Amino acid sequence: MEALVSVIYEFRSIHGECPEIPDDLSIPQFFLDSWHPLRPTRPVGSPWVIDDESGNTLDYEQIRSRSYGLAQVLKTRWRLEEDQVAAIFSPNHTYYPIICFGVHRIGAAITAANPTFSAEELQYQLEATKAQLLFVHPAALKAGLAAAKAVGLSTDSVVLIEPAPNTEQRFVTLDEAILEGLQQPERFVDRQLKPGEAKTKIAFYNSSSGTTGKPKSVAIPHYSVIANVLQKARMNRVYDPTVPPERRRFAAGSVSLNVLPQFHIYGCIVAVFFQIFCGCSVLVIPKFNFTSFLGSIQKYRVSTLFVVPPMIVLLCKHPATKNYDLSSVRAVMVGAAPTSAELTGQLMALLPNINFFQGYGLTETATTVCMGPLDKKVGTLGSAGQLLPGIRARLLKPDGTYGGPGEQGELVIYSPSNALGYVNNEQATKETFIDGWVRTGDEAIIDANNDIFIVDRLKEIMKVRGFQVAPAELEGHLLNNLFVSDVCVVGVPDEYSGEVPFAFVVPSAEANERIKRGEEKLVKAQIAKYVADAKAPYKHLVGGIEFIDIIPKNPSGKLLRRLLRDKAKEARQRIVGEANPTKARL
Predict the structure, then answer these.
(1) Is the same domain home to 156 and 291?
(2) Which domain holds residue 112?
(3) pLDDT confidence of residue 579
(4) I want to staple 138 with a disulfide (CB 3.0 to 4.6 A). Which of 13, 164, 171, 279 is the partner?
């Protein structure tokens, strides 16, 4: 990128330089064994995590000892070696950080998968990361076992996070494994990293669709996670006693709610690790149910919410909201997709005393790039916030030059939290990770006040309820359907989900015969079911299916997706209008 122009305009954070980041500590050593000047003091008796359903808690000593016991048994029972990978296939759970800390203690890495994945989708992730061990929740056991078998993992390499009732097979449970490890004499030495080694030692292989194509595994080192936690700590002055109580977003001893999926980078680093660092108690909710969500806020007097826009839509529009006391909430952060000015206004009318702000980040940047500044009760409308301390940004324009304030271009980020690249995908790594910079694939404008506005997406990826969906993944699957001759999938706007997948299908000869017999609806239903049977729910073709004579392509055969997006919006409006003339939403 440096060679494109002689002068490069660059934006720098107005919130100071990057704090001191230890480069010789693993994640558990940083959180469990060391102190940092930016870390606030946690009140005595304040738990680290709380289970929403049971109310059971885990404090520092319980998490530290259990992760140590797990590390012991990982070495003795499963012989997990340094740099090997363990997978987590589970809804949110209080044991998530324990599994991560235990695996990281022995120098191995974590890959976490969406618990709604089909066996085929999980198999793809296990193969991509070469996982040697699978921690699975009973609710996901069937798909987990099928995927494990497909990649050659024996049942001895499957660990149940909770006991599974009504299962004929016998599996080691996580509690049993931890107890076994704690009863053994010391069998491993906690890996001490050399200076600088944390920058290359992989902690997580998180899935991301990158800028295009099937999901890729992003290699995230320990240093990146620690760096992003510290950047957010400085941005929010969590250690500063001069910040008035009413302005504190993340006060030590308060309760923050974690319903965002922990397998996702937002739910993991922002809603768990950062909150633990801030001295907050993380209320862990396994699965989002709106009325239960409201009840949990009221019951546990939650002060901080991490949400995505669909949750705000429900807060503002669902009739159940008025039945609950939400007065404890004083900070709401929204990420994964922009929130409109209108929706922001509705939320502030509902919760007038909150500090509301947006954030923006990627798996490739180990989460947060920017967030609303602490000195504003409501972040600039439409803005994703301002750069975290120590982050630099550029706006790459189509002609290869770099834009200044008020100009539009692809957002390119340099941050100490940037990941290392994609695993076993040299071409994609070269396209996205360039000389320490990450090309986000998002078009942005940065104004004179350093507010960042994400205005368009260059990449093909859809964002459905905050989850990335690669059109190419769905297209490749659909091309195996007997009714599909050719296909193009695009995202269409949806009030609740942000976007939903919509498929343009060139019907096969057999499909055309069925259509001529008046069975068009049945053919579309079968195509939709073909996706629903094999893919996670957020990848389903809820946007609709439209038959088309030909998919527009350029001379090299690349799909011209942009030519179909407007047509898809019109078709979506027609479909929704026919189904429910009074309400257009999922």
Answers:
(1) no
(2) 59-192
(3) 57
(4) 164
